[in-house]
Amino acid sequence: MDTPPAHDLDGLPSAPPAAAPAATSTRETVKLVAQTVVPLAVVFLAVSLAAAGFRPELSALGTAFVKRFGYPGMALGAFVSDAFNFPIPPQFYLLTAVAAGAPQVPSVVVVCVSSVIAANVAYAVAGYLARIPFVRRRIEASRPRIDPLFARYGYYAVAIGAMSPIPFSLLCYVAGLYRVPYRIYAVLVLMRIPRLLVFYALIRLGWAH
Asked: Does residue 19 form part of some domain?
């Protein structure tokens, strides 16, 4: 015999149970992992292909850059990229160091320190820079991806965003605009270092292929 449908107090059929939140949580976790892993895989493949097809040219470019600009050039480039969303990312300067055969430890340290300093500058001046039309458009363009994180996770979305493919400088600006407490914003800044180290390891591994 079929079991009759459940009824509520008014005699009407009860609403079907809501979808299990565990399934939604699993999908979101998978999506977050994919957003974290895919950019890393893209960097590795891009460097591997570039090294296979243009190794002499890239070596010459890296050597010329390192000889001409040295560590100050790497520092300035990484700082401008993360402080003002300049289109050349810090990973480029890691690649030039690898391609040039430059000492790797000081190169990585310079890029990491410059990125951290840039993050603090971006956070401090976000309110002022937001008045510039170009910067405001770039920030607004990131809001559809960032607002849902804040809506679901609150300020701790900063840590989640740090592992996403959202440009680091945009995260810094948005965190400054949202006035995220600095103790939480520091999580984003600190997570930048291991992420850059992972990028460096993948760049070096791709170059070695």
From this structure: no
Residue at token pair 């992972």:
198
Residues in the chain: 209
> What is the total count of domains within the chain?
1
Placement of tokens 């079907």 in the chain = 16
Contact present, 100 and 209 (Cβ < 8 Å) = no
Going by pLDDT thresholds of 50, 70 and 90, the confidence category of residue 32 is low
Provide the whole-model pTM.
Answer: 0.74
Q: Which domain holds residue 47?
A: 37-208
Q: Judge whether 14 lies within some domain.
A: no
Pairwise CA distance, residues 198 & 13, whole Å: 55
Q: Yes or no: say if 38 and 163 are a contact pair by the CB < 8 Å rule.
A: no
List, for residues 128-174, the tens digit of each pLDDT value: 766 778 767 776 776 776 677 667 766 666 667 777 777 888 888 88
